[in-house]
């Protein structure tokens, strides 16, 4: 009984390289980017060995599969470098929350407004929530007015992604930062 070791099995994201290419016929592209033609995978492997490079399958789903003669180590390095750049350049947009109440005072509202504008300028989305407690549910219109005023003061820095909506005892709206034109 033969045991299959973990490193004998091909991984899902592993490239087809050299002896791992098991197709009968492949279309070959040389290291200068010129098409050599269609040939058996053994012949293609022999050509790659002559050039001192690797045979890498770049399009396994094509008919016939496309293989390229290249330096595989350099190719992997370039792929990892591109992936690092993509991760570095991508910015996760977080959702911050500002909580208001229907009885908020002017100064408290201004403090929360200043903090919200800072978040919008840094590129974060902001969820504005007006929470109603107890008998305040009878005066939702007051909370709606406070939310509308707050959003109007933020209008220069944001766009309304989700307009005000009452969900249970909370009136919420979501603001997204304006795209800066460079």
Word description of this protein:
The structure is a single chain. The protein contains 4 helices and 8 strands; from the N terminus they run E-E-H-E-E-H-E-H-E-H-E-E. With 182 residues, it is of the alpha/beta class. The protein folds into 2 domains: 9-88, Translation initiation factor 3 (IF-3), N-terminal domain (Ubiquitin-like (UB roll)); 95-177, Translation initiation factor 3 (IF-3), C-terminal domain (Translation Initiation Factor IF3), CATH 3.30.110. The strands form 2 sheets. It has a 4-stranded mixed β-sheet with strand order 2-1-4-3.
Quickly describe the structure:
The chain has helices at 41-51, 72-89, 106-121, 140-154, and strands at 25-29, 35-40, 54-59, 66-70, 95-100, 125-131, 158-167, 170-177. The chain is an alpha/beta fold and 182 residues long.
Q: Indicate the structural class.
A: alpha/beta
The CATH topology of the largest domain comes to Translation Initiation Factor IF3
Gyration radius, rounded: 30 Å
- For the record, the CATH class of the largest domain is Alpha Beta
The total strand number stands at 8
End-to-end Cα distance, whole Å, is 66 Å
GO cellular component, one term: cytosol
InterPro entries: T_IF-3_C_sf (IPR036788), T_IF-3_N_sf (IPR036787), Translation_initiation_fac3_CS (IPR019813), Translation_initiation_fac_3 (IPR001288), Translation_initiation_fac_3_C (IPR019815), Translation_initiation_fac_3_N (IPR019814)
Keywords: Cytoplasm, Initiation factor, Protein biosynthesis
Domain Translation initiation factor 3 C-terminal: 93-178
């Amino acid at each position: 009984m033969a045991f299959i070791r973990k490193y004998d099995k091909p991984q899902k994201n592993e490239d087809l390289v050299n002896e791992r290419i098991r197709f009968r016929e492949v279309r070959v592209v040389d290291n200068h980017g010129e098409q050599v033609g269609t040939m058996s995978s053994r012949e293609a492997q022999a050509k790659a060995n002559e050039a001192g490079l690797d045979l890498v399958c770049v399009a396994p789903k094509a008919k016939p599969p496309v293989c390229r003669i290249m330096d595989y180590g350099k190719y992997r390095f370039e792929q990892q470098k591109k992936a690092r750049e993509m991760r570095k350049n991508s910015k996760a947009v977080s959702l911050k929350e500002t909580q208001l109440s229907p009885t908020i005072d002017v100064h408290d509202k201004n403090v929360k407004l200043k903090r919200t504008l800072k978040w919008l300028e840094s590129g974060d989305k902001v969820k504005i929530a007006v929470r109603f407690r107890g008998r305040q549910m009878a005066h939702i219109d007051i909370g709606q007015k406070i939310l509308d005023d707050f959003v109007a003061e933020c209008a220069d820095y944001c766009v309304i992604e989700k307009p005000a909506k009452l969900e249970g005892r909370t009136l919420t709206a979501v603001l997204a930062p304006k795209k800066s034109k460079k």
